[in-house]
Design a protein that fits this description.
alpha/beta, Arc Repressor Mutant, subunit A, D-Maltodextrin-Binding Protein, domain 2, disordered C terminus
C-alpha cells in the first residue's frame, strides 16, 4: 500500500492557523492568500480527517486535530533545523523563552547558553517564573516557547512532555515531627508541588504549616539544607546536604507531575527554530528523563 506524503506547506498552514487563531491572520503571517490557506487545510483534512471544528465564535481543534498539530510542530521543527544547517535564509527574530523556577531547568539553561556561544546571531529573551506565571504569559502571546508544568490547558501548542515523580526531602540533620505540625518548605500558592504535599498530608490527617516560602528553587534548596522543614523536589534538585524520605513510609507517594514543552510562532525565526530544537532534543533524551526516576542511596527519616 502506497503511503501518501504530506507536504510541509500544508502542515505549516495548519500550525499557523492554530497559532494565529484564524485563516486571515495566518495568511498574513505566511505572506499568502486566505484561499491558499483554506485549500491547504482542506487537502490536509481530506487526507487525515476532520481537524478543525467550525465555530462562528472561535477556532477549535478536534481531538484528532490536537494530535496532528503536535506531530506537525515536531516535523516543522526538524525541517527548520535542517534549513538552518543548509543555510536557508530565515528571518532572525528574537525568540522569547519562558522557563519555570519551580522545576529543574539547569540542563535546559546550560544548553541554550552553549547554543548562544556557538551561534553569535542566536537571539533570545528569557522570562523565568512559576509555571503558572509562565503559562499565563504564553497564553497571552508574550512568549514563543515555554517549558512549564503542563495543566493540559494548551494541548495544541505542546511539542513534547514527560512525567516526573516529586519526592519528599529534608535536611541531613532534620528530624521529622511525629506529634506536632509538619513544617513545609514551599513555592507560593498555585505551585503543583505545594498542592501535592498538602493533598498527601491532608489525606493522612497530618497537621502542617508553611515554615518557608520562596518562588525560586534555589531558595527552597537552601531552606531544606538548613533543616527548616520538609519539601517536595525531584532527584536532579536533591543536594548532598539533603536526604530523601521514604515516600511510602512517611507521607505517601505524591501524584506525578507532567512537564511540557510548548511553542508557537517559531517557523520563520532561525533563533526560535534552533532553541526549540535544542530544548526538544534535551527533553526527549533518555539521560535527561532518567534523571527524574533514578533513586540514589537514601536514608529513612529519623523517627
Amino acid at each position: 500500500m502506497k503511503v501518501e506524503e504530506i507536504p510541509t506547506n500544508w502542515l505549516r498552514s495548519f500550525v499557523t492557523v492554530v497559532d494565529c487563531h484564524g485563516y486571515t491572520r495566518a495568511a498574513k503571517a505566511l505572506g499568502c492568500s486566505q484561499p491558499t490557506i483554506s485549500v491547504h487545510i482542506q487537502r490536509l483534512e481530506a487526507m487525515q480527517g476532520k481537524l478543525i471544528a467550525r465555530d462562528k465564535k472561535r477556532l477549535a481543534l478536534t481531538p484528532l486535530g490536537t494530535q496532528v498539530v503536535g506531530y506537525a510542530r515536531q516535523i516543522l521543527t526538524l525541517h527548520a533545523e535542517l534549513s538552518c544547517l543548509t543555510a536557508e535564509r530565515m528571518t532572525d527574530l528574537t525568540v522569547r523563552i519562558g522557563l519555570p523556577t519551580d522545576f529543574a531547568t539547569q540542563a535546559l539553561q546550560s544548553s541554550l547558553m552553549t547554543l548562544a556561544q556557538e551561534k553569535p546571531n542566536f537571539r533570545v529573551e528569557y522570562r523565568c517564573g512559576l509555571s503558572s506565571e509562565i503559562t499565563e504569559l504564553f497564553a497571552n502571546r508574550e512568549l514563543d516557547i515555554m517549558v512549564a508544568i503542563d495543566q493540559n490547558s494548551l494541548p495544541e501548542y505542546r511539542i513534547n512532555s514527560l512525567f516526573i515523580n516529586p519526592i519528599w526531602v529534608c535536611g541531613k540533620h532534620f528530624t521529622v515531627p511525629t506529634s506536632t505540625s509538619i513544617p513545609l518548605i514551599v513555592h507560593p500558592e498555585g505551585c503543583e508541588y505545594r498542592t501535592r504535599m498538602i493533598e498527601n498530608l491532608s489525606r493522612h490527617n497530618l497537621p502542617w504549616h508553611v515554615a518557608f516560602e520562596s518562588p525560586f528553587i534555589q531558595g527552597l534548596q537552601e531552606a531544606v539544607e538548613n533543616n527548616l522543614g520538609v519539601s517536595a523536589l525531584t532527584y536532579p534538585t536533591v543536594s548532598p546536604k539533603m536526604r530523601v524520605l521514604d515516600n511510602e513510609k512517611e507521607f505517601g507517594l505524591m501524584r506525578q507531575i507532567q512537564i511540557g514543552l510548548f511553542a508557537r510562532n517559531t517557523l520563520s525565526s532561525m533563533s526560535a527554530s534552533l532553541a526549540l530544537s535544542q530544548l526538544h532534543n534535551i527533553l526527549k533524551s533518555s539521560a535527561y528523563r532518567a534523571g527524574f526516576t533514578r533513586e540514589p542511596s537514601r536514608e529513612t527519616a529519623s523517627q
